[in-house]
Amino acid sequence: MSLINKDIGIDLGTTYTTIYLKDKGIVLKEPTVVAINVITNEVLAVGKEAKEMLGRTPDNIVALKPLKSGVISNLLATQKLLEKFIENISGKSLFGRIRAVICVPSGITDIERRAVEEAAYLAGAKEVYVIEQTIAAAIGAGLNINGAQGSMVIDIGGGITEIAVLSLGGVVVSDSIKIAGTDMDSDIIEYIKEKYDILIGENVAEEIKNTIGVAVDSMVEDRMQIKGRNLKTGLPDILTIQTSNIKEASLRVLDEIVKLINMTFEKTPPELAADIMENGITICGGGAYIKNLERYVAARVKVPVKIADNPLECVAKGLGKYLNNIEALRKTGKHKR
Questions:
Q1: For 232, which DSSP code?
Q2: Is 209 exposed, middle or buried (0-12, 13-18, 19+ CB in 10 A)?
Q3: Residue 138 near residue 209 (C-beta atoms within 8 A)
Q4: Contact 243, 215 (CB under 8 A)
Q5: What is the pTM of this model?
Q6: How far is CA 168 from CA 76, 99, 155, 176, 284, in A?
Q7: 3-state DSSP assignment of residue 41
Q8: Phi, psi of 148 (to 5 degrees)
Q9: Cα–Cα distance measured from residue 315 to residue 94, given in angstroms and rounded to the nearest whole number
Q10: Torsion of the alpha carbons at 286, 83, 45 and 75, rounded to the nearest 10
Q11: How does pLDDT run across 269-296, given as a tens digit for each residue?
């Protein structure tokens, strides 16, 4: 498959990167992880293969996440990541004819925005356009953002949680916190360490969150077996945990998200707040997979809440809609070259 003269949408997330190819749909969804030989500066692996190296590499190899809290912390690694991803779906030496639409967090600085653009250009894109992530998420979740009625979307990503109130095609109110899915993982690691004297890695913590993570108790307890290192003996150990054991570990992040929602409502015009009260809040992003999250949020903000279909794909699908009208983005001047 050739990407010459093709348009792609890139959801460059802290935890996962998703690429949408015009007329084809989502063609890639991989962890945002790069493994690099620090001596030769050679990229050894990207995506799933690199993620499996986390915590397992010798001194001459580092597996890293090149984005932190939704923004680029390692430009070279991000460039290499995008370059490899594009190569994986297009073949080599085809980069010069690609136009890319890439989303960015709404609260980033001009310098951070330029870093995203530069990474895409260095990866071989001919033209790069940027749009706000919450707009893409809302469109991908099926919300009508062009009407006068207000809607609220919450995107819980890996490194950042964003909230936007939208009306008449634009963002009226937005807010964000650099607390999201990876913070839940860190809290799970700390909780297992403190409660059971067992140290687990990032990948295990993420698996726990996605498999048995819950915001509100369920009638049925889910269980899973995890492996780690016993801090008392220093030896490998196996532990069976269930949802009630780790629910507490997710509450700090969820409470911060609820506080952010309340702060956003305080800045929302009353007419739009009334619309949201009627239409509800839509949650997307990888954090939306926490079981019963909608019940937890609805009980605390007293507003109906729903989880978008395929929440991790909402941003990429929203970008796909933009690819059908990329000339409109050209007119906005939201591109660098």
A1: T
A2: buried
A3: no
A4: no
A5: 0.89
A6: 38, 27, 20, 21, 21
A7: coil
A8: -75, -25
A9: 25
A10: -70
A11: 999 999 999 999 999 999 999 999 999 9
Spatial neighbors of 55 by CB under 8 A, at least 6 apart, are: 63, 201, 202, 203
**Distance (Å, whole) CA 82 – CA 123:** 6
Angstrom distance (rounded) from CA 150 to CA 272: 5
For residue 136 the two structure tokens come to 């893409």
Say how far apart CA 335 and CA 337 lie, in whole Å. 6
Q: Mind listing the domains of the chain with CATH numbers?
A: 7-135+314-332 (3.30.420.40), 141-179+254-312 (3.30.420.40), 181-249 (3.90.640.10)
Q: What is the DSSP letter of 308?
A: P
The SS3 call for residue 334 is: coil
Q: What pLDDT digit, counting tens, does each position of 103-128 carry?
A: 998 878 899 899 999 999 988 888 89
Give the SS3 label for residue 220. Answer: coil
Terminal Cα-to-Cα distance of the chain (whole angstroms): 26
Number of C-beta neighbours around residue 286 at 10 A:
23
Query: What gap in Å lies between CA 11 and CA 305, rounded to an integer?
Result: 24
Whole-number Å distance between alpha carbons of 326 and 125: 15
Sign of CA dihedral 158, 296, 314, 152: negative
Q: Angle at the Cα of 86 (from 92 to 326), degrees rounded to 5? A: 120
Place of tokens 């954090």: 287
How far is the CA of 214 from the CAs of 36, 107, 292, in angstroms? 35, 29, 6
- In which residue are the tokens 């969820």 written? 254
Using CA atoms, how far residue 93 sits from 19, 98, 124, 127, 317, in Å, is 18, 11, 9, 16, 27
Task: Give the whole-angstrom CA distance, residue 19 versus residue 17.
Answer: 7
Query: Is residue 184 predicted with pLDDT exceeding 80?
Result: yes
Per-residue CA distances from 314 to 127, 157, 283, 303 (Å):
23, 11, 10, 22
> What 8-state DSSP symbol labels residue 235?
S
